Amino acid sequence: MPLQRLTEAEDGLVLDLRYATADNLTGRPIYRRPVAMLVPEARARLARARDLAAALGLRLVLFDAFRPLEAQWALWNAVGDKSFVADPRRGGVHPRGVAVDLTLAEAATGRRLPMGTDFDALTPASAHGSLDVPAEAQRNRALLLGIMTAAGWDNYLREWWHYQLFEPRRYPAHWASAVPDGPM
What does this protein do (predicted)? Predict the structure, then answer.
């Protein structure tokens, strides 16, 4: 299934593609250029989530979407606790173009809602339902969960920021060569 590129202008998202910068758990960029892509079904569901968030005066801030298998290997090799990163030998879900990592921001100000931990914090406090974060962060996580669930996304219990299509393994994993206009 072909991957489709997401843009701020066309998709109404804020792109903060962390793996194209050093501001991620590896401490270095793992993408050569900031590109966000999804399969068409995932893109349509993200548009639905965007609309649900907008109705509440919020915007979606996207940290990651499609992740080539090469990048999945880079994360796998950088992380000690393998329960937070999918084994690239199994393909993971990001390399299939069916997963997103994201948060919420106020549409009027751009201020990101507090979630209690940063994106990619590999701690038990990152889990949905963690009571180790302030009540405001718990409410914001629940709000994000409600928006994404209503738009047809499944969540990963250990990471408040990660959502994926149901039955993601029905989609093939992609290498960087699948990226239009050259590798990421």
Answer: Catalyzes hydrolysis of the D-alanyl-D-alanine dipeptide.
Alpha-carbon span 32 to 51, nearest angstrom: 30
Give residue limits of the domains in the chain: 4-178
Chain centroid to Cα 42, Å, comes to 12
Q: Is 174 annotated as a binding residue?
A: no
**What are the 10-residue block averages of pLDDT along the chain, 184 residues in total?**
92 96 91 90 98 98 93 88 85 92 98 97 95 98 98 97 96 70 51
Look at domain 4-178 and name its CATH class.
alpha beta
pTM: 0.93
Q: Does the active-site annotation cover 167?
A: no
Catalytic residue among 41, 70, 159, 167: 159
